[in-house]
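Progress narrative, work stream C.
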Amino acid sequence: MDSKSISSVEVVLQKLEYYCSYQERCHVEVNEKLRSYAISEHERNMVIVHLIEQNFLNEERFASVFTLSKFHQKKWGKIRLKNELKARKISDYLIQKAVKEISTDEYETTFAILSEKCWESITEKNTLKKRKKFCNYMLRKGWESDWVYEKVKQLETE
């Protein structure tokens, strides 16, 4: 390795430390970012190892923070959360662990509040169309289909 290569790796390392420090990142995001720099595969691996050793990169922490923040901010259900984590190549074990951090009471309360708010916001007069819009929205958010269909029946009778 020549001195130019070493300095460029050090610069990349600094940039990626900052990249990982202001927001939790997963390995896939860091790898994508690393591809934008002109460094070799070996140097990329060295950077990733450094980030893991210095605790800038931690998949378990990422999965946990991602799950809780998307649940609280975007009101995503467990199905959507699992699919989004799988898309980021997070292991099944870490996905299960992260999803278990959501308390059952909070999950059920969030579902009830979101579903009622959604139902009231749909102005469609045709009951079938209103039901379809409601179900599509809730399923897209990643809520369990049996919960959604049970809730729509309950809301229709009220």
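Work stream C, second folded protein:
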Amino acid sequence: MATQIHVNLPVKDLPAAKKFFAELGYAFEAEFTDDNAACLVIEDNIYVMLLTEDFFRSFSKKEIPDTGRTAEAILALGVDSRERVDELVDKALAAGGTATREPMDEGFMYARSFQDLDGHLWEVITLDLEAMRAQQG
């Protein structure tokens, strides 16, 4: 079996979080979705478990960070083109997300960032390794 990653994120309003990510074009694994959690499928072997805050607390004794004041992590998604970067981030902003910084364009690398409805930070990036290596000489 290939290694899988399941990122667990606390959310204040599970139906709103599900709607937000559905508007970005993502689907949910029904078998692992209920009133406490939703299994967001990013791609084969990459999942984000959106957990109600109460359910999230059942997995950790640590406080849930206040994402309005602190950054817990930046979730970076690598995609295949600048157009896909723009498409995903534009959809996130239209669905109620917030831009977190100016786009980064290094020629070989292009990235844009947003925060979701719960303040989790996301970066969408495309990288042309051949162009990067050519630039590095």
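The first helix runs from residue 14 to 23. No further action is required on this item.
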